[in-house]
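Entry 14. Ran structure prediction on the chain below.
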Amino acid sequence: MASLHLEAGPDDYYYSLQRYSILYRILLARPYITEIKFNTWNRIDLKLVNELGLTLTGNEKKRCRLEVGCHLLVEKEGAVVSSKECSITCRPIQHNAWESTDASDIAGFHNDTQGNFEYMVTLQDEDNSFLIIKEDWNMGTPGKMWDSALVISQLFCDKINTDPNCLDGCRLLDLSAGTGCVGLLIASMCKMKQQKATSILPKITMTDLEEALDMIYKNRAYNHLEKYTEVKVLKWGKYEDVQKVLEDGPIDTIIASDILYDPASFPKLVQTLDWLSREQTDIYLGYKRRGLDLQIEQSFFDICSEKFYIKLLDQSSSKSRRGWILNELSDICKDTGVNIYKLIRK
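Output, structure tokens:
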């Protein structure tokens, strides 16, 4: 994940579309070889895109310089960790003397949004745990990690690192979870905290439409978090779904990120939040303005204010020293255009 800034005039359409989508994802430009030989250099080709699938252009593209590194991850005892048996080394692509392509001095992106590197696996150590989230952009909205999910994940990363017991014993709901990124990150962090000290794990439930649940199930399985989370169907405005979620007890915290995109669904969304919550429930809503005009956007908050007090959280007060995606991520979040609102029942 990288943060890059665009420089263009305010009347430029491309600029207006991209100016708040500055968290860029590193994706595979083409499939890679899954069966590799030890002590042999292998090539990976990459591309750099934002949440809209758009790349940099013009001078920003020419100035793009981003070095990448590698971790070799394995599944071990129910967690994804760095391999202790093997090590991985990466380097810039090595070109032959007769090739016309200018050689890059870094592994990654050099004056372009198309990048690459070579890696070699050899026979050894690190003891860090990783969270693996797979995206499927062919699924549309549920298949992406949108910027609001990344920012709200950082909020809870900060909360847990500051107070490891802040979620002990609580019931947490990730509403319309998409990839499951937020709920799975919280579950993973609480799982690691419990392994180091005695604590009562939170009960974490991730919900979405029936057709979107497969992505959550897959990402949960990748991270061996089946025992630490549950997945349920929940369609906004459908009271039967809400009742089934509440069968396991009242909800203390609700998280929802990037769910304000269909004005016709606003009343059902607010009704669903009302059904799910009680006086003690904290609701965190991550929202980033994209296509809605101010009047339509305000219509949601007008409907919401009938049931809830709405507070815009001040992200500048974050004391995060180390982000779960990038160091100093809390500073980068200020430039994404993502706002986090806290809703409390009236």
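The first helix runs from residue 13 to 18. Will compare against last week's run tomorrow.
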